[in-house]
């Protein structure tokens, strides 16, 4: 609720501060006293654009501050948290307008944009002014009213969960179908590439191993000659190297005991003899394995050529990289085989979710349709009470494509003159009619919808007497559940106030300024009596005013 409003240097307001009641606040005053100026100032902290012509003193900035109690307002706190503003049980909205026209907005002392201010204000204040485009003509609000009175909250929560699951499943299905379509375009090509590699049947590191084998095969004769020479020089010449070393060992043995160094040399020669004998055997063995095979050379060359062709085709450099390409192609082909089953499963799930969502939407629709006639009867009865006896509300609930709110399109239709020509509210109702209609509807749904502070600016235009009294009764009842602030010229409405504020002009120095004060009981009686009979109220008017307040 709006706890306090502080205005400084706005139009002909020097500085005022208003502490509002949490129930029904009535603002009265003579025409031109400045009531509309108050609304203009309030609009600034609700996110409206600033007009520098309204600055009272051009050497001072304009300052407007609203203090709100939001301890039970979860949507407000959620908005503050999402926008990274401080969250507390008290909320302060502030506008500052410099003489040069530069405007700044603040939420809990943190700089804010006008858009943020406007979004937050919509959760705090429901402002109704004549000739405004009111939310009553908005399809979302009309649906919310009907759902609130039909008690659809639990079903709507269940439905939205199913609806969003269905939307998600449908999107996933479409993506799978698109994926399959793309796969089908490339399937033959992928299959061809895979078959090429699969038929080639490469083994890990095969091309590298074949390259090494080809080097040996191509140089077989030279290698065998070199190996034969090694073996021959070590074991088969007239003076084999091994035999020479053996002789050297025998010569040194006679002197082994004379010097330890000689014993070491003998040991080293023996080790060399053993190592060279092993080398001779290994050379002979290797020589026996190497065979020049022209057919094998041709076969290896063919294999390498086929493999190198694939390396170049797939832009890789090794056998293992080529095998990775083959595995990737196999996985893609397997995905194509699996995607059909995925699509079948997803189609079944999507159809099930759609069926469940449609079933709940049907129940919601039935509840809405069942509530339309009782709501219209109640509203039409209230319209008669507030001075609109010929006005009629009609609610059209039509079937529509499934959407996040069900499967209905809802339209509030209005006939102001019993012409039986019902048209959409936004097209035919005047500002005053809309305001009173909104009051009637919101008084019915106040217990079902968490309404913000409601502000009515002169919705009593064109009514008086019993109709004005009934508007006051409805406002009083509504204020029992929500804070209401109303500007009025009707004494019957003013008499219902929990807090009665009086706007007036006064002369300070050479300037005329607007001020406001909270009236006590006696002042209220006088103010209402003046509204009844003029500046000098009669005794009858005073008694009548006293009766209005007491009742």
From TrEMBL:
<dbReference type="GO" id="GO:0006281">
    <property type="term" value="P:DNA repair"/>
</dbReference>
<dbReference type="InterPro" id="IPR027417">
    <property type="entry name" value="P-loop_NTPase"/>
</dbReference>
<keyword id="KW-0227">DNA damage</keyword>
<dbReference type="GO" id="GO:0006310">
    <property type="term" value="P:DNA recombination"/>
</dbReference>
<protein>
    <recommendedName>
        <fullName>DNA repair protein RecN</fullName>
    </recommendedName>
</protein>
<dbReference type="Pfam" id="PF02463">
    <property type="entry name" value="SMC_N"/>
</dbReference>
<keyword id="KW-0547">Nucleotide-binding</keyword>
<dbReference type="GO" id="GO:0043590">
    <property type="term" value="C:bacterial nucleoid"/>
</dbReference>
<dbReference type="InterPro" id="IPR004604">
    <property type="entry name" value="DNA_recomb/repair_RecN"/>
</dbReference>
<comment type="similarity">
    <text>Belongs to the RecN family.</text>
</comment>
<feature type="domain" description="RecF/RecN/SMC N-terminal">
    <location>
        <begin position="1"/>
        <end position="506"/>
    </location>
</feature>
<keyword id="KW-0234">DNA repair</keyword>
<dbReference type="GO" id="GO:0009432">
    <property type="term" value="P:SOS response"/>
</dbReference>
<comment type="function">
    <text>May be involved in recombinational repair of damaged DNA.</text>
</comment>
<dbReference type="InterPro" id="IPR003395">
    <property type="entry name" value="RecF/RecN/SMC_N"/>
</dbReference>
<dbReference type="GO" id="GO:0005524">
    <property type="term" value="F:ATP binding"/>
</dbReference>
<keyword id="KW-0067">ATP-binding</keyword>
């Amino acid at each position: 609720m709006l706890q306090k409003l502080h205005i400084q240097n706005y139009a002909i307001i020097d500085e005022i501060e208003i502490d509002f009641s949490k129930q029904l606040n009535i603002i009265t005053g003579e025409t031109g006293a400045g009531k509309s100026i108050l609304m203009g100032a309030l609009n600034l902290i609700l996110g409206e654009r600033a007009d520098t012509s309204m600055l009272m003193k051009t050497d001072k900035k304009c300052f407007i501050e609203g203090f709100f109690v939001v301890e039970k307002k979860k949507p407000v706190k959620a908005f503050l948290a999402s926008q990274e503003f401080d969250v507390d049980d008290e909320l302060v909205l502030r506008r500052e307008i410099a003489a040069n026209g530069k405007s700044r907005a603040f939420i809990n002392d943190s700089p804010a944009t006008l858009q943020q201010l406007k979004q937050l204000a919509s959760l705090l204040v429901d402002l109704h002014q004549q000739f405004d485009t009111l939310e009553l003509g908005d399809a979302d609000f009309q649906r919310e009213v009907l759902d609130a009175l039909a008690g659809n909250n639990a079903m709507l929560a269940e439905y939205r969960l199913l609806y969003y699951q269905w939307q998600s499943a449908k999107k996933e299905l479409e993506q799978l179908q698109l994926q399959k379509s793309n796969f089908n375009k490339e399937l033959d090509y992928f299959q061809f590439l895979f078959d090429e590699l699969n038929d080639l049947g490469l083994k890990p590191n095969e091309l590298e191993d074949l390259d090494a084998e080809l080097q040996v095969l191509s140089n077989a004769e030279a290698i065998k000659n070199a190996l034969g020479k090694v073996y021959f020089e070590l074991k088969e010449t007239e003076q084999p190297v091994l035999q020479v070393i053996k002789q050297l060992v025998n010569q040194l043995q006679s002197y082994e005991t004379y010097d330890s160094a000689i014993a070491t040399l003998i040991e080293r020669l023996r080790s060399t003899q053993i190592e060279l004998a092993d080398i001779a055997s290994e050379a002979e063995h290797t020589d026996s394995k190497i065979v020049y095979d022209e057919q094998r050379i041709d076969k290896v060359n063919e294999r390498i050529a086929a493999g190198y062709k694939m390396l170049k085709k797939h832009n890789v450099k090794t056998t293992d990289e080529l095998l990775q390409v083959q595995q990737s192609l196999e996985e893609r082909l397997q995905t194509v085989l699996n995607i059909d089953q995925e699509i079948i499963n997803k189609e079944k799930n999507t159809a099930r979710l759609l069926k469940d969502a449609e079933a709940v939407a049907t129940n919601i629709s039935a509840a809405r349709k069942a509530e339309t006639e009782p709501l219209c009867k109640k509203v039409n009865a209230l319209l008669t009470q507030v001075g609109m006896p010929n006005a009629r509300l009609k609610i059209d609930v039509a079937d529509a494509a499934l959407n996040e709110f069900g499967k209905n399109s809802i339209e509030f239709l209005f006939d102001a003159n019993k012409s039986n020509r019902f048209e959409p509210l936004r097209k035919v109702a005047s500002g005053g009619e809309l305001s009173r209609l909104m009051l009637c509807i919101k008084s019915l749904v106040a217990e079902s919808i968490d309404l913000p502070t409601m502000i009515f600016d002169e919705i009593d235009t064109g009514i008086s007497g019993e109709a004005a009294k009934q508007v006051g009764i409805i406002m009083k009842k509504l204020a029992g559940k929500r804070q209401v602030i109303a500007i009025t010229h009707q004494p019957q409405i003013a008499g219902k106030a929990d807090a009665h504020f009086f706007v007036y002009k006064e002369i300070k120095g050479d300037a005329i300024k607007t001020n406001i004060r909270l009236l006590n009981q006696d002042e209220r009686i006088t103010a209402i009596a003046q509204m009844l009979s003029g500046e000098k109220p009669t005794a009858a008017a005073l008694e009548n005013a006293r009766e209005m307040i007491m009742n």
